[in-house]
Amino acid sequence: MKAIWFFENTNLLNLLCPHKFKKHKENHRFLNFRKYDYIYFESDAATKIYLIVHGKIKIGAYTQDGSEIISAILSKGEVFGEKAILGEVQRTDFAQAMDNTTSICPIGVDTMHEMMRANKSFSLKIYKFIGLRFQRMERRLHLLLFKDTKTRLLEFLNDLKEDYGHYCPKTGDMVISHPYTQKEIANLIGTSRPTLNILLNELKKSKYIDFYRSKIRIKITNSVS
């Protein structure tokens, strides 16, 4: 199962960016943002989709009491705002830059529809991508509602393994080189950073994982209870 909060392990920038299409290249420009800048807010008009060229983007929403719920943290080559393709008129979430050197590629909905009409294979890829996004969000919601924090962490580690892991033939372990901070991981699985640290250290003590900075080593020969 692929990760719910990440897209397939492919650089969608190479597939979707209008810079790749001669007809749209001349008038196309990247947009630059600083950390904490908003790309769009809830209830803004949904007229574009966006591809990440550099940096990270946080996707989320606010509850009635003002609490923030993070649904995704996306990085280079990933896309957001894609519900506009299906006819979303107003945004139901917000998108916020998480780095000082964030750069994104905007694509107007009309431009995207034009590219999709001109290329059936391209159109099918877009709809497949949107379908996978919805499946992953449903799975993530199920985890947050019905699973305990440790189970959510283990599922997250399994997803990281799918997206960023590589097999180490020397040790037989799976080594994950990922782009997320512990705070970001805690936000994505719906817990606090101190609780995440406790759980990670428990897994390390049980010799299921080892971790340091942006790398996690999953010891394949061991299981976790």
From TrEMBL:
Q: Which SMART domains match?
A: cNMP, HTH_CRP
Pfam families per the record? cNMP_binding, HTH_Crp_2
- Stored SUPFAM superfamilies: cAMP-binding domain-like (SSF51206), Winged helix' DNA-binding domain (SSF46785)
Alphabetical UniProt keywords: DNA-binding, Transcription, Transcription regulation
Please state every residue range assigned to the domain named HTH crp-type: 147-224
What would you give as a GO molecular function for this chain, any one? Answer: DNA-binding transcription factor activity
- InterPro entries (UniProt xref): cNMP-bd_dom, cNMP-bd_dom_sf, Env_Response_Regulators, HTH_CRP, RmlC-like_jellyroll, WH-like_DNA-bd_sf, WH_DNA-bd_sf
Question: Per the record's keyword annotation, is Transcription regulation included, yes or no?
Answer: yes
Which GO cellular component terms are attached?
cytosol
Domain Cyclic nucleotide-binding: residue ranges: 12-92
Q: Does the keyword Transport apply?
A: no
Instruction: State what protein this is by name.
Output: CRP-like cAMP-binding protein
Q: Which organism is it from?
A: Aquimarina intermedia
Print the organism lineage. Answer: Bacteria, Pseudomonadati, Bacteroidota, Flavobacteriia, Flavobacteriales
